[in-house]
């Protein structure tokens, strides 16, 4: 079994819409300074490319996993936990 907790989009959402939703959560990250939030957001905007739920399922099947389940969706709907089993 492989567990993956990654950024993910609902089917039909493009990257820009996902990034717009990312930006909306800034007020909830109260443990970060404004500089820390800026650095994290710069990383996300540069390096994070959320796949859709359907694409995560396809990736699992393409890798040889016969069973792919979405186990958890973060309250922000920005991240999901998938299990992949042979």
Secondary structure topology:
Blueprint (H helix, E strand, L loop, with lengths): L1 E8 L5 H10 L9 H14 L3 E2 H10 L4 E7 L5 E7 L1
Parallel strand pairs: 1-2
Antiparallel strand pairs: 1-4, 3-4
Structure commentary:
By secondary structure, this protein is an alpha+beta fold. The chain has a domain at 50-86. It has three helices and four strands, in the order βααβαββ. The protein has helices at residues 15-24, 34-47, 53-62; strands spanning 2-9, 51-52, 67-73, 79-85. Strands 2-1-4-3 form a four-stranded mixed sheet, with helices on one face. Strand 3 and strand 4 form a beta hairpin. The longest helix is centred in the middle third of the chain and has 14 residues, at 34-47. The termini are close together.
Give the N-terminus to C-terminus distance in angstroms: 7 Å
Q: What is the total tally of β strands?
A: 4
Work out the helicity level.
25-40%
Shape: elongated
Q: Which structural class matches the secondary elements?
A: alpha+beta
Strand content: 25-35%
Mean pLDDT score, rounded? 96
Enumerate the spans where pLDDT stays under 50 for 5 or more consecutive residues: none
**Major β-sheet profile:** 4 strands, mixed
**What is the number of helical segments per DSSP (H or I, 4+ residues)?**
3
Radius of gyration: 14 Å
Strand order in space, largest sheet: 2-1-4-3
Note the run of SSEs as H and E: EHHEHEE
